[in-house]
UniProtKB/TrEMBL annotation:
Key words, A-Z: Membrane, Transmembrane, Transmembrane helix
Stretches forming RCC repeats: 281-344, 345-406
Alphabetical GO biological process terms: mitochondrial respiratory chain complex III assembly
Record-level GO cellular component terms: mitochondrial inner membrane
InterPro entries for this protein: MitoProcess-Associated, RCC1/BLIP-II, Reg_chr_condens
Pfam families per record: RCC1_2 (PF13540)
Organism per entry: Cladonia borealis
UniProt xrefs under SUPFAM superfamilies: RCC1/BLIP-II (SSF50985)
PANTHER family: PROTEIN FMP25, MITOCHONDRIAL (PTHR47563)
Transmembrane segments: 45-64
Protein known as: Mitochondrial protein Fmp25
Membrane listed as a keyword: yes
Amino acid sequence: MHSTRPAPRIFKEVYRASHQSAKTLTCPLHRRRHYSQNSLNDHLFNYRVLVYSVLGLGAGAALFHGSRRLGFTELHAEAPPAPAEITFEKPKKTKGLSKEENRDVISSQHLQVRKSWENPGVYAWGSNSGRVVAPDSDETLIKQPRRIPYFDGMLLRDMKLDRNFGAAITENGDLLQWGDGYSKEVREPTATLTGKDLTLMAISRDRIIALGSGGKVYSLPVSQEDQAKGAKATESSWIPFWSSKSKVSYRVIEPKDMAWGEKVSSISSGLEHLLLLTNKGRLFSSASSSERFPSRGEMGIPGLSWTTRPPGPYDQPHEIATLRGFEISAIATGNHHSLALDKEGRAFAFGDNTSGQLGLEPSSESPFIDAPSLLPISRLYSGTNLSPRITSISAGGTNSFFTVDATRVASPKEEVTPRTGLGRITADTWSCGQGILGTLGTGRWTHVQGTPTKIKSLSGLFEWDEDANTVIPIRLKRLSVGSTHASATMDNVTHVRAGTSPSTNSPNDTNWGADVVWWGGNEYYQLGMGKRNNVSVPGYIAPLDSVAEKERAKRKEEHRFQITPRHVVSVGGRRVSMEQRVECGRMVSAVYSGV
Ligand SMILES: *[C@@H]1O[C@H](CO)[C@@H](O)[C@H](O)[C@H]1NC(C)=O
Ligand SMILES: *[C@@H]1O[C@H](CO)[C@@H](O)[C@H](O)[C@H]1NC(C)=O
Ligand SMILES: *[C@@H]1O[C@H](CO)[C@@H](O)[C@H](O)[C@H]1NC(C)=O
Ligand SMILES: *[C@@H]1O[C@H](CO)[C@@H](O)[C@H](O)[C@H]1NC(C)=O
């Protein structure tokens, strides 16, 4: 028996009516396996589900956990086809192989981690009608992950993708642009806004908004032509009496009345509007497209429209005064709606609600809500012994996502015993908005989903923490939402130290990254599965580097894409801390090596 990492150690808790004595387990992997058979034919995952022991925490709740390392027996998830244990001739194969080579041979996940360190860069796929995911190709659809050679060896601070234009911030803070939306003639990523130490960016329909390290916000048109003909800022230069004109035209977006030490710390853009969050928890909004002024309430300023706007630049920021007093800590935007999360775990929504993306209870006459409204998340937990707190918000297109830490509390009449599990946290993921393409991730194809629904396969997951000897919830590390599809990176199930210490020195000790799942619209193959069907339940995709996989095709373990978590590695002779990140854009997807 080889001992590469078996199926991810993800277990699911199932609440059953208390009269039921049988305590059963559903594991999301069952579903994923089924799903993978339908859509990934050749990349069948060899799932093994571990055997569980019942801890019996809480009335009617069965908590299952297990770990290969704790010596529990392994079971196979589904009967046919019973995956054979590794049958390649081990003695021949492993003889003469270094420990590291052996790790590559026995583990696809180990190989993926190594490749991501040795050869950083960008994989992209989906619609190529704007020459974004494969700039040097005339194919209109890129069906599976493919490298953009320009980025080979490069680390990036950020990347945002529209089907017609791409933008990235290099490791030293310069903006790169490519795609037909930038220029039909220039086929290679090109540096545009440079020398500003940009840290992150957002894209509207036709502009790029980038945040400099000092909190300055730059807004520039996507198109090279517009950049050339627009007004150029005069930049002060270090050479006395000499100032140079910027190569591209840009505007500076500057919130007024900033407090001492207050600066913009985060930005997020829809198609026409921008949210700007300051390090003091204040929220501003502005117009972010030069084509259209936001008109669906997404700026969160009641009554504000093109005709009622105050004098001054059309894209001046407005403080969302109704949120004063709430310390905002995170923001997210869909095409025409906005989400804000405060430090206490309360979320506010405003803007377009035509698909139910604001996740509010039935109320209003108008589909556009221009005053930030509190998301009544506790209603989703009424009748349970759980007290919810929103831990993250994400949005894209016409959808919203919330992750929640739900803490087990005692109900008034409850008899509290040590077995009650008070204080235990369950991590859940909720979604609302448009479901016709499967973007809700709930298995449903509802057109309009106004009340948030739980994504079962991303909720109530636990793992056994060997060090702490306890069961811990598995949260999401990151959720990237494109205009119709989404991807979630799971937190806390990685190992990247094989071979670095005596305890990890066995040739059988292999690295593994974090699991990544994908779902939603697949009209342009943006899910990277090589097939076009829309997907309503999160599922795996095959490893990005299919060539490397084929080289090692004899391996009989699960082949699924995993992402390499942050780690200090040597790139081109330098020690850098890097991680792979998923970016779901507008009908396109990418994975890049981020600093
Ligand atoms: C690694 O696994 C192989 C196959 O199960 C086994 O034969 C070998 O003894 C193991 N090596 C070590 C060092 O544990
Ligand atoms: C948002 O849309 C949903 C779905 O149509 C609807 O149930 C809800 O009432 C709307 N919310 C508001 C505040 O209008
Ligand atoms: C998961 O994360 C927690 C907190 O960051 C840590 O204490 C724990 O050891 C991790 N568990 C595993 C299995 O890596
Ligand atoms: C995905 O959904 C869209 C919109 O409903 C539909 O037009 C398309 O046919 C679907 N794709 C497949 C393969 O079913």
